[in-house]
Amino acid sequence: MSGNRFPKGFLWGGATAANQLEGAYREGGKGLNVPDVLPGGKIRHQLISDPHFDLEIKEEVYTYPNQEGIDFYHRYKGDIALFAEMGFKVYRMSIAWSRIFPNGDEETPNEEGLAFYDRVFDELHQYGIEPVVTISHYEMPLHLVKAYGGWRNRELIALFERYAKVVFTRYKSKVKYWITFNEINSGLVMPIYGLGFMVEKEEDKYQATFQAFHHQFVASALAVKACHEIIPGSKVGNMILYVPTYSYDANPENVLFALEEERLLNYFCGDVQVRGEYPSFIKRYFKEHHIQLDIEKGDLEIIREGTVDFIGFSYYMSRTEKKDKSSEQVSEGNIVGGVKNPFLARSDWGWEIDPIGLRISLNQLYDRYQKPLFIVENGFGAYDKVEKDGSIQDDYRIDYIRSHIQAMGEAIEDGVDLMGYTTWGCIDLVSNSTGEMSKRYGFIYVDKHDDGSGTLERKRKKSFFWYKDVIATNGEKL
Length: 478
Hints:
Strand content: 5-15%
Distance between the termini: 8 Å
Radius of gyration: 21 Å
Keywords: Glycosidase, Hydrolase
CATH architecture: Alpha-Beta Barrel
Protein name: Glycoside hydrolase family 1 protein
Enzyme class: hydrolase
GO molecular function: hydrolase activity, acting on glycosyl bonds
Structural class: alpha/beta
CATH topology: TIM Barrel
Family: Belongs to the glycosyl hydrolase 1 family.
Largest sheet: 8 strands, parallel, barrel
Order of helices and strands: EHHHEHHEHHEHHEEHHHEEEEHEHEEEH
Shape: globular
Number of helices: 15
């Protein structure tokens, strides 16, 4: 593949989230957030689907891997040096809301938390790495969940705006690229992470969820406006979990069902944040599910005026849909459901591998919005083995990322404006979906295990050196 496919200045890098790697959950004045009280292991997914699960720390029953993460809080200098060795142009990271406002509703921010990110940004700039910062990445302060009910409560709009303005003002000379909410549409499938509440009753799945979305849309738009005012020349994006949806076959019923599922998951949130208005298709959905949004005067104007500059998205898999799934094997590994696609291989965790789906996604998004796209998450979770000589031969990860980069190049030739690519979990961290360390994504191995043991030593995997060459040649050497 010719390196000319990737434009000069293409933003190569990696991505992480504060709650999955920082640790130091009670240091520097930080308050508790949702991941701090979520147990580790595959039981996590079962518990967060249980509306009666109590968000309390029960150390005698569970382990809590996010509390230590991989100790980036104390080891960030060494980790950033490794990112620089790979040649990162950008590093997508997040600020932990509860490190800046421990409860989320204080009047005054926590100086120790602000100073920590000053040090991280300074370290990145020392190596010429541009930070891409997500303001809210699945780490809502626990107090906002318990005392306010999460994003169901309109009061969070003002609290989020205050938080955003504080970080914009503090880091206006250090951060140019911002993202408001991580995978905002994931509230449809994992509301505890993005929206800050569990779905207790069937009706909450509709009324409470979409009211919470509305509050986030207003908050995001206010943050975009504030960022442009405080940091001239800044770029603010949204971020969606993007999953192209295929019909199981040519049966028109299945084609229509796939279309409806895709529009709701992939385009509802994007349409509001990019176009600045609710899409026409959602009106029927609201009517059929008896959803009546409480929209206050001025909300729609704020949303119209606070559209994003670029579209950030994660891509891990596609989804195959059939209206009647009774006779088909459900694709249990895929986070958003669907039926198994017989044409696709799967990861160790059942996630279907579909690089062509990334090319499809890029074309779909650019055709719809005509704004720059930024792949801010894409990666391969797998079991890694440390060989006797200390090496990690992760050719499967190289194969996965190579095929997806090739798909990106094809999409650029298709005419897509793609500004950058940050692989998910450039260093091993705690898996969000399962709370495991054994589900590894990184180019850098971290000696920590599901039972909490390990030295936290860092090791370069084979993929580390491969990705270094990819960046050095601007995608020419794959």
